[in-house]
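Reply to dn_fold:

You asked what the input looked like. This is it:
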Amino acid sequence: MPSCPRTDLAVAGVTLAFCAATYGLTYRFDEVPAALMSGLGPELFPRLVIGSMALFAGLIALGLGGAPTAAPAPAPPMAWMTGAALVAFMGGVEIVGMWPAAFVFLVGLGRLWGERSLVKLAAAAIALCLALYLLFVRLLGGSFPKGIIAGLWS
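and this is what came back:
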């Protein structure tokens, strides 16, 4: 059996722990009444993704797969700032709702990535929010969080 570097074992272990925890969370999904359910239920897709991740983590732990490579370069600061913006966006969705948070996030991310024209950013953000709304809310019948602030007025 091929040997596995310690970092690969650590990555595989963390991934397997994450998979176990998130797989357990799929048991907390709301039950869909049999009359409304078509197919195998809402927990199937997340479980397939989690299972695939666990399979690949197991292969990494066993040292199977690609040949060892040199350590990658550290992530640039822009990657960390983008990740922080995504976390802030998720918090914003909970507080102000999907659409205001998405608009601010898209404009802010565009500024972070170097675009300086607020008119272009606002137009692109409005167009993307409108496209998402039409596709997911009007066409597919979904809904998005309204946020805590909107809940205060309801």
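The helical segments are 6-25, 44-61, 77-96, 98-112, 118-139, 147-153.
Hope that clears it up.
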